[in-house]
Amino acid sequence: MLPYWGLYLESLGFKPAQIGELMALIMATKIISPNVWGWIADHTGKPMAIVRLGSLAAAVAFSGTLITVTDGFGHSFLWLAVVMTVFSFFWNASLPQFEATTFSHLGDQTHRYSSIRLWGSIGFILAVTVLGFIFEAVGIGALPAILLTLMVGIWLMSLLVPERESAVVSSHLPLRDVLRRPEVIALLVVCFLMQASHGPYYTFYSIYLEDHGYSRTLIGWLWALGVIAEVLVFMFMHRLVPRFGLRNIFLASLLCAALRWALIGLYVDSLPIMIFAQTLHAASFGIYHAVSIQLIHQYFTGRNQGRGQALYSSLSFGAGGAVGSLYSGYMWSSAGPLATYFLAAIIAVAAFLVAWRSVRIDA
């Protein structure tokens, strides 16, 4: 969705600020939705039931994008805003609970998380590359129908995953006690800042490239390249950690994010530099996410598993993503793409400083 949704909104005639606001709505529901559904999952012990319900309801809600509603100025901003808010409220219920379910099935083999997570990356690679060719041929208007088909597929696959409750440990702590720990607070702040720094990338990267003469097929390949790099790092994480240490590679991933945004802002017309910048996705998302999700699993134990994953999702992808979409939407037209990407780089540096100062990792 993210690589092409901005292009689709632009094709409907929406301006950069409106695109930023619509993208922010998708992110903003992650502030509330995962916590609501996480609380329900932790109290019922049925996270897969939440995944199934969320997937189905999200598909039903998203079907509203196939209905054309106009106002006096073209496609209705209000209609699309309502549809995307309802859709994302249910859509954002699923992923944190599926992460918790994955760790429950892994048991004491949590180090295998990356080798499972990489299949989501492979799916993303196939989607963005194939869709790039499709949109060159038939246009971006086909996007909603394709996304709806994929959502129905997700719901059907969720029916095949068995339920498994998280193990309740004897040393279970109240959630408020976990949230008082300095390293937990620091990690959540870092996650918020990192996703905020991704705002211009997720909202305007495709538009930025197309404005500079890149074809939609090439844009798809560049998105795919970033995730290919992510897959490779997931495959080799078990070798990187013993050699360099979890804390060191975590800090390096934050600096790589800052470098990546600066390169995209400065050298958009250079394909070799754009290719290099996309390989940094291995660090700015791959390593960062793998370390973060593992730390969340360690910090939030027992009945806090679901809510821990929900907090990670809501504060990073939710609050951070919403802030990132909003500032990039407002800055894109007023200050320009270069200034927008430079601000993203500064935010990533701030995340590094917080992590360097306060995040302590044993491994």
Index terms:
363 residues; mainly alpha; Growth Hormone, Chain: A; two-stranded antiparallel ribbon; 80% helix
- Characterize the main sheet: 2 strands, antiparallel
Which CATH architecture would you pick? Up-down Bundle
**Outline type:** globular
Count of the domains = 1
CATH superfamily: MFS general substrate transporter like domains
Kindly identify the CATH topology.
Answer: Growth Hormone, Chain: A
Number of strand segments: 2
- Give the helix proportion (percent range): over 70%
Q: Quick check: average pLDDT?
A: 87
Radius of gyration: 20 Å
Q: Counting H and I runs of at least 4 residues, what is the number of helices?
A: 15
Question: Under the CATH scheme, which class?
Answer: Mainly Alpha
Distance between the termini: 35 Å
Spatially, the strands of the biggest sheet line up as: 1-2
Short description:
The chain is mainly α and 363 residues long. The protein has helices at 2-11, 16-44, 47-62, 77-106, 113-138, 143-158, 175-179, 182-197, 199-211, 216-244, 246-266, 271-279, 281-299, 305-334, 337-358, and strands at residues 70-71, 74-75. It has one domain: Up-down Bundle (Growth Hormone, Chain: A).
Account of the protein in words:
The chain has one domain (2-159, 174-358): MFS general substrate transporter like domains (Growth Hormone, Chain: A, Up-down Bundle). The protein is built from 15 helices and two strands. It has helices spanning 2-11, 16-44, 47-62, 77-106, 113-138, 143-158, 175-179, 182-197, 199-211, 216-244, 246-266, 271-279, 281-299, 305-334, 337-358, and strands spanning 70-71, 74-75. It has a two-stranded antiparallel sheet. Helix 2 (16-44) runs parallel beside helix 4, helix 4 runs antiparallel to helix 14 and helix 8 (182-197) runs antiparallel to helix 13 (281-299). Residues 167-171 have low confidence and may be disordered.
